């Protein structure tokens, strides 16, 4: 059962949301003295976290902040590991699909207090099931990592700001394609175990993508 939301929420347009979040990020200091900010936009694919992260990247660049965009879909494990328990195992989707070790090695480690800033945008193509071979880039000090994807919170990532796009169970089921509804139990488990609406710094109610509301 999804816990009820607490606190006040303010209606906001999608365009204004990206700008308001960018202002919030630019006013945030790294929690561990790192030269970089690390931000996650967490949400099921049905909530379109990548779309918000892309808009946020543009808003941050307009504010003079370099951005490194990473999607969780570029750091999935190879199919032989992801699908070890079958193609539609919700517990494997929750626990095993994301290659957290690779994210630490190629993204979070280099953006730590003693890091080099040399990071990858992605590592694995889950469709072709092979390495992407993308080149490394260097995020200058003062830059912002923007990571988007599902089930990102509660993994110990050193995030300076976490945004959670919240869908009610009914909205999540309605907006999830039929061929992906086997993942719904994983999101129920995520709500019960991780409680992302309580873990995140900012919660966005996203049942209607045209009319979001955010926690203030």
Brief descriptors of the model:
kinase activity; two-stranded antiparallel sheet; 216 residues; single chain; Uridine kinase; seven-stranded mixed sheet; 11 strands; Rossmann fold; alpha/beta
Written overview of the protein:
With 216 residues, the protein is of the alpha/beta class. The chain has a single domain, classed as Rossmann fold (3-Layer(aba) Sandwich), CATH 3.40.50. 31% of the residues lie in helices and 19% in strands. It has eight helices and eleven strands. Helix 1 (14-26) packs across helix 2. The two termini are 24 Å apart. The mean pLDDT is 95. Keywords: Kinase, Transferase. GO terms for molecular function: kinase activity. InterPro entries: P-loop_NTPase (IPR027417).
The CATH class, by name, is: Alpha Beta
Q: What integer value in Å does the Rg equal? A: 17 Å
| Largest β sheet strand count, sense and barrel closure | 7 strands, mixed
The proportion of residues forming helix, as a percent range, comes to: 25-40%
Global mean pLDDT: 95
CATH superfamily: P-loop containing nucleotide triphosphate hydrolases
Distance between the termini: 24 Å
CATH topology: Rossmann fold
> Class by helix and strand content?
alpha/beta
Number of strands: 11
Which word captures the global form?
globular
Instruction: Domain count, please report it.
Output: 1
**CATH-level-2 architecture:** 3-Layer(aba) Sandwich
Percent strand: 15-25%
Helix-strand pattern, N to C?
Answer: EHEHEHHHEEEEEEHHHEE
Q: Which regions have little confidence, pLDDT < 50, spanning 5+ residues?
A: none
Organism: Streptomyces desertarenae
GO molecular function: kinase activity
Protein name: Uridine kinase
Keywords: Kinase, Transferase
């Amino acid at each position: 059962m999804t816990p009820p939301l607490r606190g006040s929420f303010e209606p906001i347009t999608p365009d204004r949301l990206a700008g308001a979040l960018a202002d919030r990020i630019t006013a945030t200091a790294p929690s561990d003295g790192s030269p970089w900010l690390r931000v996650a936009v967490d949400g099921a694919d049905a909530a379109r976290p990548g779309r918000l992260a892309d808009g946020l990247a543009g808003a941050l660049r307009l504010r003079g902040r370099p951005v490194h965009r990473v999607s969780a879909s570029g750091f999935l494990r190879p199919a032989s590991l992801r699908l070890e328990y079958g193609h539609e195992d919700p517990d494997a989707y929750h626990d095993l699909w994301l290659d957290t070790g690779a994210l630490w090695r190629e993204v979070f480690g280099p953006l730590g207090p003693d890091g080099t800033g040399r990071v990858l945008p992605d590592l694995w193509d889950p469709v072709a099931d092979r390495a992407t071979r993308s080149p490394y880039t260097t995020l200058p000090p003062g830059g912002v990592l923007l990571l988007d994807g599902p089930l990102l919170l509660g993994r110990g990532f050193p995030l300076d700001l976490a945004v959670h796009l919240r869908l009610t169970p009914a909205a999540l089921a309605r907006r999830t394609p039929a061929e992906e509804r086997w993942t719904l139990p994983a999101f129920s488990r995520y709500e019960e175990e991780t409680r992302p609406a309580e873990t995140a710094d900012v919660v966005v109610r996203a049942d209607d993508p045209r009319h979001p509301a955010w926690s203030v």
